[in-house]
Write a structure and sequence with these properties.
Blueprint: E1 3-5, H1 13-19, E2 26-30, E3 34-39, E4 42-47, E5 51-57, E6 70-71, E7 78-80, E8 87-96, E9 107-112, H2 117-126, H3 137-149, H4 152-161, H5 172-181, H6 185-191
C-alpha cells in the first residue's frame, strides 16, 4: 500500500528536528482499510471509509505551519506541516483524535504537506474516498478573490448557509479564511460560476 513522504522546507528543518519531525518519522500511509498519518510524535489513524473528501490546498502562512502539529481554534482542524507551499486537506465523516495523547480533542479534518499532494488525492480516490476536486484552478482563484470582496455581513450569511457556527463575532479576515478552508466545488460554482 502507498506511503507518502512529506515535503520538507529547509527553513523548517531545525524546528522540525527539535520536535522529532524527520523524514523517517513523518508520512501518510494508506493500507487496505486504514488511513494513517504520522508527524513525529503526533498520529492520526482512522478507517479508510471514514475519509469523506480530500483536496489539494495551499499555500499557507508560515506561522500556521511552522513547528508542532497545529490545532485550528475555529474548527478544531489539525495540520501536520513541513512547508507552507501546498498540501492535502482530508475531511472525515467522524472526527478523529491526534493533537492530544488522551484523545479528548477530535478533529473533523487534517491537512498534511506531503511531497506529492495530487498523488495522495488520487490514491484516496482509488480507495473509494470521494475527493473534493475543483476542475479549473482559475475558478478557485476567482472564488477566493470574490470572498475577499464580500462584506463581513455577506460572509457571515454565506457561512451560515454552509452550516458554520459561531461566526457572529468573527472579523472579515477570519471569515474569509474560514470559508477558504471550506472551498469546494459547490462553493466555487456559487462564487465564480464557469463562463
Amino acid at each position: 500500500m502507498p506511503r507518502f513522504s512529506f515535503a520538507f522546507d529547509p527553513r523548517y528543518r531545525l524546528v522540525d528536528l527539535a520536535l522529532g519531525v524527520t523524514p523517517a518519522s513523518t508520512w501518510v500511509e494508506l493500507t487496505e482499510n486504514a488511513f494513517h498519518a504520522r508527524f513525529g510524535p503526533w498520529r492520526v489513524r482512522t478507517d479508510l471509509d471514514n475519509v469523506a473528501a480530500a483536496r489539494v490546498t495551499g499555500p499557507y502562512s508560515v506561522p500556521k505551519t511552522l513547528g508542532p502539529a497545529h490545532l485550528s481554534l475555529r474548527d478544531r482542524g489539525l495540520t501536520f506541516a513541513t512547508t507552507s507551499r501546498e498540501g492535502v486537506c482530508v475531511e472525515f465523516h467522524r472526527p478523529v483524535t491526534g493533537i492530544d495523547p488522551l484523545g479528548l480533542i477530535r478533529h473533523p479534518g487534517l491537512t498534511v504537506t506531503v511531497a506529492e499532494p495530487e498523488a495522495l488525492v488520487e490514491a484516496l480516490r482509488s480507495e473509494g474516498a470521494p475527493p473534493v476536486q475543483i476542475d479549473d484552478p482559475r475558478q478557485e482563484q476567482a472564488a477566493e478573490d470574490e470572498l475577499h470582496t464580500m462584506s463581513a455581513r455577506e460572509l457571515r450569511a454565506l457561512a451560515d448557509e454552509r452550516g458554520l457556527r459561531h461566526t457572529s463575532s468573527m472579523k472579515k479576515a477570519d471569515l474569509v479564511e474560514l470559508l477558504e478552508a471550506r472551498l469546494d466545488e459547490s462553493l466555487v460554482d456559487e462564487l465564480a460560476p464557469p463562463s
